[in-house]
């Protein structure tokens, strides 16, 4: 009998970055509990399709949902209401210029129908470490030099794992998302992991994949070398709007 049938979830060792097989995840997607958020453990997790998601005061929970919600960059759908805004907007977009501010804004910006945040200070610090190591990246929207929207996640191989986004001005995060996906597509990225299904991302063309198919595609796409480092000069972004 496998350990998965002896415990409600796999309990992680403090001395090893090894995870139970992703196929052992419970129906709610939870695979394992415990461990820590050291960079090595996080990178090992994402490379196997596993990510941390838990609330303040609870132990660290590791997930591998079935089905998996993903977006293929070539399949990006831009809603008609947003298409005109792509060429007529007031924003200036940057990449990796203020990662810490983006993740803090994702954690603190109020959201309709949501109290608190899963982005605890421990989680924020963990992804900030990954940013300093060149694995985590942010896309930012500025309005008159004020950060008003953006998103962040991490990159391995030809996959970008989206984590969270925020908006403090109409369409700021939506436009940042569209331009970011288009830039990733131009660089040959084949997959954006959206993790859990949301109506918001479904409107942009994201769809559900069975977990086995997601894991097989992930394994293949991770054979491409990771574009590690600051992406400020890597991603092709539109110029700042004219002040005229």
Write the layout of secondary structure elements.
Elements: E1 10-12, E2 30-34, H1 39-46, E3 51-52, E4 61-63, E5 68-71, H2 80-83, E6 92-95, H3 99-108, H4 121-132, E7 136-143, E8 146-156, E9 159-167, H5 172-186, E10 191-195, H6 199-202, E11 207-209, H7 211-221
Parallel strand pairs: 1-2, 9-10
Antiparallel strand pairs: 2-4, 3-4, 5-10, 5-11, 6-7, 7-8, 8-9
Helix pairs in contact: 3-4
Describe this structure in words.
By secondary structure, the chain is α+β, with helices and mostly antiparallel strands. Strands 6-7-8-9-10-5-11 form a 7-stranded mixed beta sheet, sandwiched between helices. A 4-stranded mixed beta sheet has the order 1-2-4-3. Mean pLDDT is about 90; it is low at about 1-5. It has helices at about 40-45, 80-85, 100-110, 120-130, 170-185, 200, 210-220; strands at about 10, 30-35, 50, 60-65, 70, 90-95, 135-145, 145-155, 160-165, 190-195, 205-210. Helix 3 (about 100-110) packs antiparallel against helix 4. The chain starts with 9 loop residues before the first strand and ends in a 23-residue tail after the last helix.
Total DSSP E strands: 11
* Main beta-sheet strand count, sense and barrel state: 7 strands, mixed
Instruction: Estimate percent helicity.
Output: 25-40%
Run of helices and strands: EEHEEEHEHHEEEHEHEH
Mean pLDDT level: 92
How much is the radius of gyration in Å? Answer: 18 Å
Structural class of the helices, strands and pairings?
alpha+beta
Silhouette:
globular
The residue ranges in which pLDDT falls below 50 over 5 or more consecutive positions are 1-7
- Beta-strand content estimate: 15-25%
User: Looking across the biggest beta sheet, what order are the strands in?
Assistant: 6-7-8-9-10-5-11
The number of distinct helices, counting runs of at least 4 residues, comes to 7
Oligomer: single chain
* Distance between the ends: 71 Å
